[in-house]
Amino acid sequence: MEPLLTAGLRAALVFILLLLAAGTSEHDLYLSFCGTWRHDSGALSLIVNLSTGCSEISISAGQSSLSIDGQITAGCSRSEVIPLKQLGLESQEETRFCLYWEPLLDQLKLQVGGKNLSLCWPRSVQGLCCTDLSNSGKAPVAIYGITDGTIKNDLFTHETLEAYKFIGESTDCKSLCDQQSRGSTHVNVEPAVGNVEHLCAHSSEVDMKEGFRGHNVTAAATKGVPAESSTTVHLPPALKTAATKTSKVVCTFFNNNSLFQEGHKENRLFNEVVGITVENEVIANLSEPITIDFHHDVIPQLHSKKCVSWDTRKDPLQVNWLADGCETRQKGAKHTECLCNHLTYFSVLVQMEPRPVRHLLALTAITSLGCAVSVISCVAVFIFLCRKSRRCKEQSIPIHMGLAVSLGLLNLLFFFTGVLANVGGERLCVWVGAGLHYTLLSSFTWMGVEVFHTFWMVHVVFSPSPKACVWNLVGFALPALPVFILAAVGDIYGVREVVPSDDVSNPYRMCWMKDTPKALLAHYFTNMTAVAVLVISGLVMLFLVYRKIRIRDEWRQNRVAFLSIWGLSCLYGTSWGLTFLDFGPLSDVILFLSCVLNAFQGFFLMLRFYMLAWMRKQAGGSALGSTSTGSTRQHMLQAPEKS
Fold this sequence. Notes:
Elements: H1 2-24, E1 31-38, E2 45-52, E3 56-61, E4 65-73, E5 78-83, E6 94-102, E7 107-112, E8 115-120, E9 128-135, E10 141-151, E11 154-157, E12 163-172, H2 173-180, E13 202-207, E14 215-218, E15 232-235, H3 238-242, E16 248-254, E17 267-269, E18 273-277, E19 290-295, E20 305-310, E21 321-322, E22 326-332, E23 335-340, E24 345-351, H4 360-391, H5 397-459, H6 468-477, H7 480-489, E25 493-498, E26 508-513, H8 517-549, H9 558-572, H10 587-599, H11 601-619, H12 623-626, H13 632-637
Helix pairs in contact: 4-5, 4-10, 4-11, 5-6, 5-7, 5-8, 8-9, 9-11
GO molecular function: G protein-coupled receptor activity
InterPro entries: GAIN_B, GAIN_dom_sf, GPCR_2-like_7TM, GPCR_2_secretin-like, GPS
Signal peptide: 1-26
C-alpha cells in the first residue's frame, strides 16, 4: 500500500511541475552557434541564401565554402557568394566561426576570421519572429565540415559533421517585446560596457510633406527612465530637398547594441543606436545637419566620447564605425549632441582604454612657436647659403640648402595642420597629411645625407663627392616613393585626434596619419624606422669625427669642441632619438625636451651657421678662421676643400 501511495505522490508532483513549467515558459529567442570549420588551404568563399519566412536554417561547410541557407527572417532576403580572401584564411586549414541570430532585430551576424559580418541588418519590430530554433538532428560525419559544434556554449559533438540544421517556430513579435520589457541596459566603463539584455527596437515614420520645416522624433520612454532623457532626433528641412524619390523617412531606435559592436576592446558603443533611412536612397552631404541628442550615464573624464556612424558604403557586411561626417558636442556630463550630414546608423563611441596626452596645451604652444621661428630661420639660412654659393663652390652648400628647404616646409605644414584640419576636414587632410609625411621623410633623408657627406669628407679623402643633382634626387625624390605607395593603399592619411588628459571631450585635430591599425603599421615602418637609422648613424658619425680630430689644438678649447659637436647634432637630427625615451618617471621631461629641440631645429640650424661665422671673424687669419662654414672636413680637419 505504501509503495503505491509513494508512486502516486511522485506522479502528482511531476504533473504539477510540468504545469508550472508550461505556465511560466518563455520563448527561446536567440540562436548562438559556434564551431570550427575544417577546410582545405586555398581560396575560400561564403555562400549565403536567405529568404523571408520561418521554417529552418542550415549551416553547412565543405572543402572550400561555408554555407548559410534558410528561411527565418522577417524582411531580409539575400543570395550571393562572398569571397573570403580579405580575411586571410587561405593559409589555414581550420577556422573558428560563430553565427548569431537576433529575431527581435531581424539581424543575422556571422563572426569568422576575427571579423563581424552582418548578413542581415537590424530592423525595428516586425509582425512575426522566427524563434525557438532547435537542432533537427545529427548530420553525416565528413572529412571537411564543422567540428566542435556548440549551441549556446553547450558542446554538441567533437565529430566533424557536414551541416547543422535548426527548425524554427513563428511567434508574434510584440508579445516577445512585452516578455523582454523586463530587461534593462546599463553602461559601465569599468571594465565593460553594457549587457545582452535589451528592449525591442521601434521605428517612427515621418512624412515630409510640402513646406516641411523640420521635425523632432523622440524614442519611446523606457521603464525607469525620465521622458526628457530619451534620445531625440531633429530632421532638418534640408532633408526634404535631398530626398528626391520619396517623402518618408524612418527613424529606428535600438536599445541593444551587442550586435553593433566591432569587437575591439579599445572602443565600445553606448547602449543606444539610432538608424535613420530613406527607402532606396543614399543621402549624404546635407546642407543642414541632422541633430541627435543622446542621454547617457556619466562617463569618467579619461574616457573620450565621439559621435560615429556606420559606414555601409565601404563594406556593407562589416561593422565599421567612423567619425567622418559627424560633429560631437558635449552638452553636459550625461548629454552628447551629434550633428551629422548623412543618413545611416548613429551612436556614441567610448574609448575604453584612455590614451590622453598630458600637458597638450603647453606642448602645442611650444611646437607652434618653434615651427614659426624655424620657418623664418630656414628662410634666412637658405638666403645665406645662396649668397655663400656665389663666392665659393663648396660641395656641402647644396646639401645644407636641401636640408633648410625640407625642414622649412615641414615646419610650415605642421604650423598650419591644426587650422587646416578644422577648416578643410577629411578631404583636405588627406593631401595635407601626405604632404606632412613627405616633408618629414625628406628632412630625415637630408639629415642622413649630412651624415653620409661627413663620412665621405672625413674618410674618403681622395675621391670627389657626388654631384648636387645626385643629392637632390636622393633628398627630394626618394621620400616621395613610400608616400605614393601609402596614398595608393588608401585610408592612411586624414584627420588625427590627439586627446588631452585634462579635457578628453575636446581633442586637438590635426592632419596626419589616421589612428587606425593600418596607419599605425605604416608609421612604424616608415617614420620610426627612419628615425632609428638616422639617430644610430648620427651618433656613430659623431663618435668617429670626435676620434679623428680630438687631438687638434683648436679642439682643446672647450667652446670650439662644444659648438662643433652641437652644430653637427643639428645637422644629423640626433635630437629625434629622444622619441624612444618617452617612458618612465622622466617621460614628461623627455617629452618637453624633445618638443623644444625638434620644433626649434630650424632655429638651431641658423644659430650654427651664425656661430661658425662669428668664430671665423674672431679667429682672424688662423687656420680655423680660414675654414668655410659649409664643409665638416674643413671645419674639423682643416684640410683644403676638394673641387
